[in-house]
Write a structure and sequence with these properties.
Helices cover 75% and strands 0% of the residues. The longest helix is centred in the middle third of the chain and has 23 residues, at 47-69. It has one domain (20-120). The chain has helices at 3-12, 21-42, 47-69, 77-99, 105-120.
Amino acid sequence: MNALDLARTAYATPGTPARTLRGIEYDLFARVTHRLKASLARGRSDFGLLAQALHENRQLWAALASDVAEPGNQLPGPLRAQLFYLYEFTEQHSAKVLEGSGSPEVLIDINTAVMRGLRSEGRTP
């Protein structure tokens, strides 16, 4: 099979549907949340895993906060404010988890709630 045949085959039959931004966001939250859960299961015995999971979660929330802070963001103002607040909370609580005075469970719960919202938006009840 030559390159032209491969191209025709690739475009003739849709394999995987195009992913939406919402789907990509969901997948990112799912991956990070899975890592947080894994670190919770291991306990403080694997501090490196915990620190890495918290770092990835912070990066995700920082990117989200940056996006909702953009003037052209199309989300409603109150939702943007809530998401930015959750970013700030995540930053502060992550520091508490790292110092041993907090649990990653709260962060897992927040991420899970966001994932539920990403999954349900656009569906009719």
